[in-house]
Design a protein that fits this description.
The structure is a single chain. 16% of the residues lie in helices and 45% in strands. Strands 4, 5, 6, 7 and 8 form a five-stranded antiparallel β-sheet that branches. A three-stranded antiparallel β-sheet has the order 1-2-3. The longest helix has 10 residues. The protein is globular.
């Protein structure tokens, strides 16, 4: 399968702009895509945070510069405040740069 940044062109227009990755298999035609929030939530650190905090919400993604390169920060926060998990990924590839948890 080939994995490239961006959503598939035939996803609904309302989510076409969402940062994500898509996978396509040239042999069988299989295609799938996942947005950045779903990719971040699938990380082991995020799964652990979700299990520990139980009720979380995603904050609006924000762009920052990390190491001189554009980055996308996806944050999860315990409902009611307090604990937070930030997933920092490169903007162009969505490769995870770091995951930071704040108590």
């Amino acid at each position: 399968a080939t994995i490239t940044p961006g959503m598939l062109p035939d996803v609904p227009a309302s989510i076409r702009h969402v940062p994500g990755l898509n996978a396509c298999c040239p042999a069988c035609g299989w295609r799938a895509c996942q947005g950045q929030v779903g990719l971040a939530l699938a990380l082991p650190e995020a799964q652990r945070f979700w299990r520990e905090q139980r009720r979380i919400r995603v904050l609006p993604p924000r762009e920052e510069e990390v190491g001189g390169r554009p980055a996308l920060v996806t944050s999860f926060e315990r409902l009611g405040g307090g604990a937070r998990l930030d997933v920092v990924a490169r903007r162009d590839t969505l490769a995870v740069v770091t995951v930071v948890q704040t108590p």
